[in-house]
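Backbones bend. Shown next:

***
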Amino acid sequence: MTELSETNTSKHRTPVPDYIPNELVREIDAYALDGIEEGVHEAWKRVQQPDTPPLVWTPLTGGHWIATRGALINEIYRSPDRFSSKVIWVPREAGEAYEMVPTRMDPPEHTPYRQAIDKGLSLAQIRQVEEDIRRVASELIDGFAAQGHCDFARDFAGIFPVKVFLALADLPMEDAEKLNELAKEMTRPSGKTPEEQGRSLAQANKGFFDYVAPIIAERRGGEGTDLITQMVNSTINGEAMPEDKALGLVSLLLLGGLDTVVNFLSFMMIYLARHPEAVKELREEPKKLHRSVEEMFRRFGVVSDARYVVKDMEYYGTKLKEGDLILLPTVLHGLDDDQHEDPMKLNFSRRNVAHSTFAQGPHRCAGMHLARMEVVVMLQEWLSRIPEFSMKKGAVPEYHSGIVAAVENVPLVWKV
């Protein structure tokens, strides 16, 4: 990992600071992982070799640390006093352009905004819409089940969670394409340099704000039960939510609902299509399906965000400087051999499943109850209609790494 590949020689590089020893330097581009053609999770797993230090530093994507072990990823997420959410994207230029809340806040400022989100996405609230979620899944699957084939990423994953979330937010489905393009530029900003990526993210962030501003104005003071109305009419420390924070909060809701579950589902289905024995197990033991979901989330983490080092310190034997950024690839927690035997394999009987797919600590994903329900419902409805399926012969999925990993071209086939 320390040698330069042909691709890496042309990439923008940041000089290695004097305080970072050469043995900790690795050539890792979070937006273009080496070996990504084999899969995003496979490419990240290549980083996590037995002799890989718990913290490594890359001169790519603006220069930053990467936590390579589950114990660190878990601990850093849970320690906002040492590792701030002030800048949570790499490169730094993109992180500084990111304006959504409360993800870039630390407690106690973060707490009332998080409470506002939790109110609308609590388990009790999500259970009330289970039948609506099931109807969306059923209708989509029924639309192509008789064909014997589909591009899962395009025909299901790219629609199902988006349609569910836009319904919860009371927004028109025809806005999905525009919002999806903005979400891609937020989580995988285009550009060959940190400055270009920062400009791309800033423009996408502004696009979200421009979209939600009139919606917020319209729903202020309203009595609707949709997510946005609930959010913007929440009080923060006894006062109305400030306009800039409302823009950031509603934009974050849309970003979270439009990109993460979409991609998780496709990664999951690629694996299941290639492992019919796992599908058979789920089909023959329906009760196991509920328990399997946490194992799925362990195996297919998609988020890699960062934390800002609050002060100079020594951490796991490594000198960190105030202002350093540490990338936390959640996939590396779930795939850590120190915590899971044979971690690349789905084991639906696995006990003590540990992962950070929903992050940890004060920023643990507010949408996790919705995500879990979407996965359970989707699998139930899919397997009841399409009990056996596989990847189309010769299919080559197109993988993308970034703040949220993605995959396109997932052609599935089955007997009608």
About this structure: DSSP finds 17 helices and 14 strands in the chain. The chain has one domain: 6-413. The longest helix spans residues 243-274.
